[in-house]
Every structure is written in C-alpha cells, then in structure tokens.
Amino acid sequence: MGGHDAHHHGPSYQIPNHDIYKVEDVPELKHVQEELAKKGLRDPWLRNQVWRYKRSASPFIRGLICVTRGWRIAIPAFLITIAVEQYFGIDYSGHGHHGDKHGNGHH
C-alpha cells in the first residue's frame, strides 16, 4: 500500500499523434474550412472531426459492425422476455386456451 505496484490498472489507450489528422485529407471538412474562411472565420477544432470520415475498415467489416451493434443488450433482453413469457404462460398466438373460456369449445 502506498508504494508503486507493478500492476497497471485501467485500460491502456494509445493516443494517436494529432498530426495524422489533417482537414485537407477530408473533402467535406475542407469545404467547411473554405466556407468559414470566406466569412473570415476559422474553426481550430475542425481537425478533431477528421477521424469520423476516415475509413479504416473494409465495407464488409463496417456493415457487420453496423448490423451487430447493440446485440450485447438485445440478445439477453430477448432471452429474458422469452423466459418471462414461458414462466407466466403468456401466449400471443390467439390460439391458447380459447375453448376453455367459452365452455363449449365451439368457435
């Protein structure tokens, strides 16, 4: 306690060098920069948006990420819903115990 331990706690993030993000590399942001310049304005933080336009993964991988986003929540929620419906005997089909309610079983 109180000393320097050999364990590294928390996530280790690799912060990229800011020089790799250039507004000039992204046509959309370059246009914004030019439009601001026409009005005598400058956005010093515009470079912070470059990463949003960089395509690092293949279209297939990006599509897969898009389709599977949220599954960590959706799948357990789906399974819990099924378990609750099974436990309480909830039936949405409309066929359930219909005959028992009317007594004679005729529709």
From TrEMBL:
GO biological process, one term: electron transport chain
InterPro entries on file: NDUFB3
Pfam families, per database record: NDUF_B12 (PF08122)
Membrane topology: Single-pass membrane protein
UniProt superkingdom: Eukaryota
This protein's UniProt keywords: Electron transport, Membrane, Mitochondrion, Mitochondrion inner membrane, Respiratory chain, Transmembrane, Transmembrane helix, Transport, Ubiquinone
Keyword Electron transport among UniProt keywords: yes
UniProt keyword Lyase, yes or no: no
Family: Belongs to the complex I NDUFB3 subunit family.
PANTHER family, per the entry: NADH DEHYDROGENASE [UBIQUINONE] 1 BETA SUBCOMPLEX SUBUNIT 3, NADH-UBIQUINONE OXIDOREDUCTASE B12 SUBUNIT
Function comment: Accessory subunit of the mitochondrial membrane respiratory chain NADH dehydrogenase (Complex I), that is believed not to be involved in catalysis. Complex I functions in the transfer of electrons from NADH to the respiratory chain. The immediate electron acceptor for the enzyme is believed to be ubiquinone.
Name used for this protein in its record: NADH dehydrogenase [ubiquinone] 1 beta subcomplex subunit 3
Lineage of origin: Eukaryota, Metazoa, Ecdysozoa, Arthropoda, Hexapoda
